[in-house]
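Hi W., the coenzyme A complex you wanted:
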Amino acid sequence: MIQTQVSVRAATEGDAEAVRTFLAGLSASAQYQRFFTGLGSVSPSLVRELVAVRPHQNVVLALCGTDVIGHAMASTNRSGAVELGVVVSEDHRHKGLATRLLGELLNRAVLAGADRLQLDVLGDNALVLDWIRRRLPDTEFEREGNTLTGYASLAVAATTAA
Ligand SMILES: CC(C)(COP(=O)(O)OP(=O)(O)OC[C@H]1O[C@@H](n2cnc3c(N)ncnc32)[C@H](O)[C@@H]1OP(=O)(O)O)[C@@H](O)C(=O)NCCC(=O)NCCS
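Structure:
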């Protein structure tokens, strides 16, 4: 069997169509866990935002050949905390891809001087909440409706995700 190598790199505007195809191929539950809403036909404006690399926003992709199989972004918010979002294709999970994508983003964020992490997770997303509690046991959570927001030290996060 020929296995295509998985690569991780920064997103560019030229990745928009591959990212749109990736998002459209996610299950409704994966879309909801990542974006807290279904995506319907996936709007061009959302895709543009998800491939936009700016001074306060980093985006990395996992690719298998030319197919996008994972997407992660880190945005520095007004309080200076780095907000993370990640989603991996259902066919490529539990192989360390999300860990690899987030490790890449966190190292860049630490190098850029950020020191705090903010994670918004649905209250019923047990896999991710357990993951955060294992990797970042000092995370403090606040609940608002169905969403939990975790706050953690970015120095610790960068070390444990690497
Ligand atoms: C959360 C998600 C990104 C993880 O992607 P992944 O590539 O499978 O993650 P990894 O393989 O790097 O594993 C991450 C951790 O989850 C654990 N994990 C992954 N899949 C698991 C499973 N099916 N059961 C139990 N644990 C699991 C891994 O053991 C690892 O924990 P560890 O670091 O303590 O060993 C993926 O499940 C997903 O896309 N979910 C929907 C979107 C979402 O919930 N995003 C998070 C909110 S922004």
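Residues 6-161 form a domain with the Aminopeptidase fold (CATH 3.40.630.30).

W.
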